[in-house]
Specification:
single chain; about 325 residues; D-Maltodextrin-Binding Protein, domain 2; about 45% helix
């Protein structure tokens, strides 16, 4: 399917890009983060940009374009020239979940973008209030089945990966837990600590301080294997639901039509950057699973994520309302 650029633009851009490749990048680059400064995506982007500024011989600037859950920034890059100079730090929400939840989405992840490489993945942690007599996934399932609609879980909002992970859990376990959306993870976590909520599917970075303080209890992680930061906590799959896996991820995308040689060069440079000990060790210590994939492998992964979350949304009747 032809991206939104006109046929004329495509016809003229290809030979120009081909001639420009030997001297690429030739000009400063920008890496668009579709969220406000200060989050994990922004921090990772700045670490990578610093490294690529050195290795590419051109400044790579990080540009924050928040709005609409990341959609605004993603759409900006989808419309940018396909010259490899404007890139997007896309995430699960913008490229895995949004296509099935947002019928008016102004872009399509695999039509309007050229996936470059996966950068990191991160599991969610299923945490409960200590007063809840639940110490395992099997306990939670039994409690939820014994008293339908008695278990509540908080998330940072409708349509987030945390929300859909809860939906997927209900589908796999045959339970009916109650979703309670908040305006951000911090508010949901505060209510969990206060005992207002039963549980929460939370980012490891968000819940780790409270876990260490003993105000909440972890019963499972959503990665296929245990996380090194919580070696005593089993995966959901290990604890009773084989095959269950839900990871939030972040990766680099270029606009569709970017010359393959440029995409491959970017992929190689970014993969080398995230293998540097100062980058790899810093983010691994915060619970991230470092990625680094070829463009082809990342494209396959994004396609699988779109299909996976579309099924969860369809079977669960999930809407943004």
């Amino acid at each position: 399917m032809i991206p939104r650029r006109s046929l004329l633009a495509l016809a003229t851009a290809a030979p120009l890009a081909a001639r420009a490749q030997p001297d690429w990048p030739g000009r400063p680059l920008r890496l668009v983060v579709p969220f406000a400064p200060g989050g994990s995506t922004d921090l990772m982007a700045r670490r990578i940009a610093e490294r690529l500024t050195r290795t590419l011989g051109q400044t790579m600037l990080v540009e924050n374009r928040p709005g609409a859950g990341g959609v605004s920034g993603a759409d900006f890059v989808a419309r940018a020239p396909a010259d490899g100079l404007t890139l997007l730090f896309g995430v699960t929400g913008t490229h895995g979940i949004a296509p099935s939840l947002n019928p008016g989405l102004p872009y399509q992840p695999l039509r309007d973008f050229a996936p470059v490489t996966l950068v990191v993945q991160a599991p969610l942690v299923l945490v409960v209030h200590p007063a809840l007599p639940v110490h395992s996934v099997r306990d939670l399932i039994a409690t939820a089945k014994a008293a339908p609609a008695s278990i509540t879980y908080g998330t940072p909002g409708n349509g987030t990966s945390m929300h859909l992970t809860g939906v997927m859990f209900d589908q796999a376990a045959g339970t009916q837990t109650i979703h309670v959306p908040y305006r951000g993870s911090a508010m949901a976590l505060n209510d969990l600590v206060a005992g207002t909520l039963s549980c929460m599917w939370g980012d490891l970075l968000v819940v780790l301080p409270q876990l260490r303080a003993g105000t909440i209890r972890a019963i499972a992680v959503t990665s296929a294997a245990r996380n090194p930061l919580l070696p005593e906590v089993p995966s959901v799959a290990e604890a009773g639901l084989p095959g269950f896996e839900a990871l939030s991820w972040q990766g680099i995308f270029a606009p569709a039509g970017t010359p393959p040689a440029v995409v491959e060069r970017l992929s190689a440079e970014i993969r080398a950057a995230i293998e540097l000990p100062e980058i790899r060790d810093f983010f691994a210590a915060q619970g991230f699973l470092m990625g680094g994939t070829t463009p082809a492998a990342f494209t396959t992964m994004v396609g699988a994520e779109i299909a996976k979350w579309a099924k969860v949304v369809r079977d669960g009747g999930v809407t943004m309302q």
